Amino acid sequence: MPYSEPVASETRLVSSGITRERKRLPAVVVAMACFVSAILFATTPKASAVVPWHHGFSVPYGIPAGEENWGRALTAQAGSDTMRIALSWDAYQTGPNEYNQKALDDIVGQVQAARAWSPYAFDPKAMIIFELPNYAVPWMQAAGYQLQEGVSNTGSTKRFYPLSFTGQQAYGKAMAKALKYLYQVGIAQYIETPNEPNLLNGPAQAVPAEYIGRLGGFGLAYAAAEGVPVTSPGGPEVLIGSVSTNPGTAQASEGKTPAEYFRLVQTSANYHIALFYQGTPNGQSTAEWLMGFWRASFHSYPKLGQGENTPCELQWTSKGWRLQDELGDVTGYKAYTEVQNRLIPVINVLNEVPAKKNWWVTETGMSSYKIPEDTQEGQTQCLNRRANGGNNYGKEQQKKFYENFAYYQEWQKSHSGYPWSGWEGVTFFSPLDTTYAYNDPYKGFGVFNPGCGNYCWKPSAVYFANTL
User: Fold this and answer.
1) What band does 283 get if pLDDT is binned at 50, 70 and 90?
2) Where are the alpha helices (DSSP H) in 226-297?
3) Residue 412 φ/ψ, nearest 5 degrees
4) Does residue 20 have a pLDDT over 80?
5) CB pairs under 8 A, 24+ apart, for 387-395?
6) Number of CB atoms found within 10 A of residue 137's CB
7) Could you give phi then psi for residue 94, rounded to 5 degrees?
8) Alpha-carbon distance values, 150 to 157, 255, 452 (Å)
9) d(Cα 247, Cα 303) in Å, to the nearest integer?
10) Which of 196, 203, 255, 365 is the least crowded, having the fewest Cβ atoms under 10 Å away?
11) How far is the CA of 461 from the CAs of 69, 126, 335, 418, 431, in angstroms?
């Protein structure tokens, strides 16, 4: 259904149809050594509200281990019910029908360590990105998986996907086994296909849509075959897509728009679910029924502007010299509007098949570094502002983004019919301002920043903890 504007204009949270009950616990008091001084900071916000959709953070992987640990801890401390973390297929499967239990136990340990910071005993639950290997694993090649290197136009991290049905089914079976174990021990609720496979300029090489659909389709089919209760209310979920809604066709796999790419993912996933059940008793009806139980997942970000050559360097634009922080969407409302507009084409693809399914936003966010256009600021001022996680304007606009996202997404879920009613949850990108490349436009997306004792809470983190 096309976007429909809510009648109410104020930013508030509609809390109807609660599906999960959580107990209020006292605020967590933290005393940690300061990163830049010896000051200890006081009491953190209380995670005290309940909304009828899942929410948490996507903890970046491949960053220094200490920061990754902090990301998980702060995700839990804010009261998240979801934490998105990565597990590589080749780290878990070590041979034909051979699996490394330690890889799953490491996930258990990570989530339990995070929960020690949470006001809730059994949250957050993990959403596992079941990532592809970054090299042609010799035993996989010998087993006939036919690993093929992905494509990139920016020198992204290598990523290899299986060309053969043998390899694709092996991925699906491993995906199902990982979800089954982690769900049974109460650690993971979700598992997702590889991250942003449609981006030629993303963090890892692009993978053709047809193959992402195959991997996810076999993942869901094997999960059902393994007895994972994927069709039960509140049961574990297989997410297929992780599709970025942002790229133009020049930056996208196979030259496809996000909607075109996801359309092929959806078609391929459903086809291979049907193929899995072909020739079995009631196979067609079973497959058609199961097609409604995988979840689609999308990443949608606002306009960022453009990356800097060096931090706080003025750039020449059509409007004259501007800082990176003056470019793109510089208010929370505009940022959310762009996120929603980019979601509309891809979620409308969900309406093109009979089996209606729910969907997630597994990455979104806004930088707290933004400043109004024409701000007169020198490089030293800019660097100091960023070191503090942004100024009052930037931090408040990031909070407004969270507020607008919560209000408008829930309004659409409650009033706009399918596919909006199928929205299930969100994982915001980056719980903390971490160590990215100096010219990375995603700097400042965290809701905590170094500076006072622990990682300081930005207003968006306080809003998240107290309202979501």
Assistant:
1) very high
2) 258-277, 283-290
3) -65, -40
4) no
5) 387/451, 388/449, 388/451, 389/433, 389/444, 389/446, 389/448, 389/449, 389/451, 389/456, 389/458, 390/444, 390/449, 390/458, 394/325, 394/367, 394/368, 394/369, 394/370, 394/444, 395/368, 395/458, 395/459, 395/460
6) 20
7) -115, 0
8) 10, 14, 42
9) 11
10) 255
11) 17, 20, 17, 30, 8
Domain extents in the chain: 54-467
Alpha carbon distance 428, 97 (integer Å): 35
The widest CA-to-CA distance across the chain, in whole angstroms, is 71
Work out the number of other CB atoms within 10 angstroms of the CB of residue 217.
Answer: 31
pLDDT at residue 452, rounded to an integer: 63
Give pLDDT tens digits for 21-66.
333 333 332 322 233 222 223 346 766 567 999 999 998 877 788 8
Distance from C-alpha of 462 to C-alpha of 54, rounded to nearest angstrom: 17
* CA–CA distance, 327 with 91 (Å, rounded to integer): 40
Q: Which of 291, 117, 89, 98 is nearest to 191 (CA)?
A: 89
230 near 277, Cβ under 8 Å? no
Q: Regarding the domain delimited by 54-467, which CATH topology (the fold level of the hierarchy) does it fall under? A: TIM Barrel (3.20.20)
How crowded is residue 3: how many other Cβ atoms within 10 Å of its Cβ? Answer: 13
**Angle CA 310–60–238, to nearest 5:** 140
Please answer whether residues 142 and 99 qualify as being in contact, where contact means their C-beta atoms are separated by less than 8 angstroms: no
How far is the C-alpha of 323 from the C-alpha of 314, rounded, in Å?
5
